[in-house]
Amino acid sequence: MYKQNGSSGALSTSMFLVTALLLMAYFGFAAIQGDFGHFRRNQVNAEAKLLKVELALLQTTRGYLENKTHRLSDKYLDLDLLDEQARKVLGMAREDEIIIR
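RESULT FIELD:
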């Protein structure tokens, strides 16, 4: 029959412990450094903050451009803005004006 040796029991126990420690080390490393780990989460959060700031800037710019477009539309015409744009595009000025660039 099968005879159990004292050294083989210690060897299997030590192999089990080594395997368990290696698995714990791997999963610990993956929890910190992996694709879904702690460092990656911090990196994504920092990128999200930057994108929120960029979104706010773009929304402000869009609001400014929408206002300017509305002021030049057929429904509402701002004569001062129209005069300013015409002078800028055509490069013209009146004789009594001084142009500063």
